Amino acid sequence: MTRTWWKEAVIYQVYPRSFRDSDGDGIGDLKGIEEKLDYLKELGVDVIWLGPVYKSPNDDYGYDVSDYYEIMDEFGSMEDWTSLCSEIHRRGMKIMMDIILNHTSDEHAWFQASKTPGNNPYRDYYYWREGDSEPNNWESFFGGSAWKYDEEARAYYLHLFSVKQPDLNWSHDVLRREMYSMMRFWLDKGVDAFRLDAVNLLVKPGEWQDAELAEPDHCLAPCGHLIANGEGIHDIFQEMNNEVFSRYPMFTVAEMAGVSAEEGLLYTDSTRKELDSIIYFEHMDVDNGPGGRWETIPFSLPAFKQIITRWQLMLQGKGWIGLYLNNHDQPRVVSRWGNDSRYRVESAKMFATCIHMLQGSPYIYQGEEIGMTNIRFDSIQDYRDVETLNYYRIECENKGRSHEVVMRDIYLKSRDNARTPMQWDDSVYAGFGTVQPWIDVNPNYKEVNVEKALADPDSVLHYYRELIRLRKRYDVIVYGDYSPLLEEHSEVFAYRRTLNDETLLVVTNFSEREQMVDLGEPTSEPSLLLANYPPAEEPLTALRLRPFEARIYLAR
Ligand code: TEU
């Protein structure tokens, strides 16, 4: 067991626009994050992942960068960023920046310069294709064609995400060097970690062949599987590692959709010198129907457990993962797979237990630690996310589906579910700021907020603190081997972690019904480390688990 700081770390994701508005413009900002650092320190997190804060026209809220070297006006200035960075460090925490490499904004100077046809040094920074029609039938992840015609350029450009996010051409040596120096710029400023956005899409296939529509591969848009993990992608990460990562005491986490555990190992195997860890999607896609993420099918715990187990065993002792059930792209898990009314607190604690005790580094998405829930706005006017708005337009206007039917999908899967303002207290706008925020506050803020959670020893928040405290105390949580238990059970997820003479037993009931389970005779007397219900005196061979009950036992 080699100690590695980032394996031991808990990472907290801040979505800057929705965290805290310090200057009364309705939009979260860097000063607002700085105000809340003591709260994060007391929670016990080690690393703060800052969503993108670069200059951006905000078509995809910062994931469309128009200048990598400047801070977005709404968020503050470079001085504010420097101050935030040093205040994070002063408290013994670290800072992770979100790095967007696959595309820029169409308002980036490179893209503007690339439009001039002919011999132009920027032309090949992007994928420009001349012709009378779109080069192929690829669809964007955000709906509609992945190609857009530009009059000035007299050509089509590729955009896998929104029309305002043209894809960069990573086979271009000069572009790659530009990106490496951009990354070094931020590391030289003291950044400790990178979250690399959508990076398994960097290489595009040499042939622009059509995608077969109605793909069986439902976690990606119709062209996704043709692009994900393309030939030569590992060479890029080895080069990036050599040019950038290996020169700093940093760590990387790569966000990658459409990656199997086998591929996940190739990316993160420490001997290959590519990436340190990966955030994969497979377990989050279990409720996607054949039509994609907007089509929701019932959650299947057996499918979920199989995926988790496959990844745990595949990477054990070789690679590393980020553990998560929530982020800014996913609906809130308490609403999605738990019960956000009757068992909000119980289910929030249960999901946290299940995730935090696995092997990997746990990620906490803002508001998850107080059990924030999905929202339901009646009108599409109240939604802000480009993916959601495109979906509504395509389904209602182009396909003629009714408002009610389309809104049902949006209530289940819209990314705005997780993007409503952080609920700090029960004052107007939930303590997020003093004016109407850019997106409405969840109406349950009087019930669900930080101030209330701090005052209640049984809150979700105090439970998260306990989970983090346990991680700092028991090496088995970070470094122990994983083995699944009760693999056939359809409602209970249980597993064992072992390191030397320490054994951890984790048992979580994913259902609203009581479940009887037998974990087998223990080899030594187990002690209950943490649970989300008052302790019940039962032998491990006859556990009676209450709705969404979670327990962690330690045996030596
Ligand atoms: O997400 C990449 C990604 O794979 C998304 O398509 C994801 O599947 C989708 O958001 C689910 O609805 C990253 C960022 O996390 C996301 O916020 C950005 O919109 C996207 O890249 C483009 O930069």
UniProtKB/TrEMBL annotation:
A Pfam family assignment: Alpha-amylase
EC numbers, comma separated: 3.2.1.10
InterPro entries in alphabetical order: GH, GH13_cat_dom, Glyco_hydro_b, O16G_dom_2, SusG-like_C
GO MF annotations in UniProt: alpha-amylase activity; oligo-1,6-glucosidase activity
Keywords: Glycosidase, Hydrolase
Record keyword Protein transport present: no
A biological-process GO annotation: oligosaccharide catabolic process
Acetylation listed as a keyword: no
Reaction(s) the record says it catalyses: Hydrolysis of (1->6)-alpha-D-glucosidic linkages in some oligosaccharides produced from starch and glycogen by alpha-amylase, and in isomaltose
Domain Glycosyl hydrolase family 13 catalytic: 13-419
Family: Belongs to the glycosyl hydrolase 13 family.
NCBIfam families for this protein: PRK10933.1
Protein name from the UniProt record: oligo-1,6-glucosidase
Organism whose genome encodes this protein: Paenibacillus durus (Paenibacillus azotofixans)
Organism lineage: Bacteria, Bacillati, Bacillota, Bacilli, Bacillales
